[in-house]
Amino acid sequence: MDATARVLSRRAFWGSARVSRGVVRAVRTLAVTLLLACPSALAAQPAAQPTPLEGLTVPGHAPPEAQRRQIDAYVHEIAPLRTDQPLARWTDPICPLVTGLPRGAAEEVLVRVSQVVQQAGAPLAPKASCKPNFVIVVTPDPKGFARAWQKHDPGIFGDRTLSSADALLAAGRPVIVWQNTSNDPSDGSGLTGDITKPGERHWAQGSHIFTEMVRHTRGAAVIVDAKQAVGLTTRQIADYVSMTGLAEIRADASVEAFPTILALFKSERARAPRELSAWDLAYLRGLYATDPSDRTQRLKISAEIERETSQPTS
To answer: β-strand 89-90 against 134-139: which pairing, if any?
Structure first.
């Protein structure tokens, strides 16, 4: 198996973060190969000026009831539509890998993503020893990159059907995101019963308050279209991929009315959000602080956003 084939193996990104150094090198090689095919794509991108994470974009204060309604609408809009399904989140330590950018820019994105992971309350793997499971690729040909990947490994899109994967690639989105998730019993007990006997395999008991299972993110890949990212800073890119990689975000969400980094590619460059908003970070914190099996998790995330954004600033 050659280096490219190792990149595209299913185990490389979906197998509990076990990625060899050869795989890491091969991912970078594939990304750089596509970047060289269109070297001017990032030439106009200005270098980002690193700023403290505390410098978050804070939306203007509305009356409490109006802001509460806005926050509820924001959570409803960006979260998956199936309210009966728990929101997926990382439980394995996250090890980000950034490729396709010049070394300095890639390091800035990596540092910023790691900061957001920690601020969100998600687990971050020690940099020195971790194996990448959150892969961020910047390329002028996202569809070609993903197709090359898919050609060698049809299973790279996790549990997506082939038609939904084709739709994802054909949409021409500036960013392609997919995650591999697993369903696990909410009480941590594992499957009960004798799995060798028909009808014996079942989940732990759920209730009207808690779900019988939770969803864990095991791996994620974010492919950014370099041509559509011209003019953006590394901070904007890092914050956008952090938001979409740490949480499940509806790809067709209408976010223009909300203060969120998710509007990055839906706004004119001069008016585009510069970084995560206070709502975005509070959403991530709520996601990782609440009980994932709680059927009212979305309401509690909204309450967390309201609590954090209503606190007076010094």
So the answer is: unpaired
pLDDT in tens, 127-175: 888 888 999 999 888 888 877 777 766 666 665 555 565 666 667 788 9
Query: How far is the C-alpha of 269 from the C-alpha of 34, rounded, in Å?
Result: 25
- How many structural domains is the chain composed of? 1
Encode pLDDT of 50-83 as tens digits.
433 344 455 555 668 888 999 999 999 999 877 6
Q: Domain residues for 112?
A: 3-41+86-184+212-277
Listed in sequence order, the residues at least 6 apart from 110 whose beta carbon sits closer than 8 Å to its beta carbon are 96, 97, 98
For residue 38, give the nearest of 229, 218, 185, 204 by alpha carbon. 229
pTM of the prediction? Answer: 0.76
Q: What are 97-136's pLDDT values in tens digits?
A: 999 898 999 999 999 999 999 999 999 999 888 888 999 9
Q: Which pair of structure tokens corresponds to residue 27?
A: 């991912």
The number of helices, as runs of H, and strands, as runs of E, in the chain is: 10, 5
Contact status, residue 241 vs residue 136, Cβ threshold 8 Å: yes
Distance from C-alpha of 25 to C-alpha of 66, rounded to nearest angstrom? 50
CB contact at 8 A, 114 and 120: no
The answer to whether residue 119 sits within a structural domain is yes
**Inside any domain, residue 35:** yes
Contacts 24+ apart (CB under 8 A), 299-305: 301/75, 301/79, 302/68, 302/71, 302/72, 302/75, 305/71, 305/74, 305/75, 305/279
* 10 inside domain: yes
* Residue 308 in domain: no
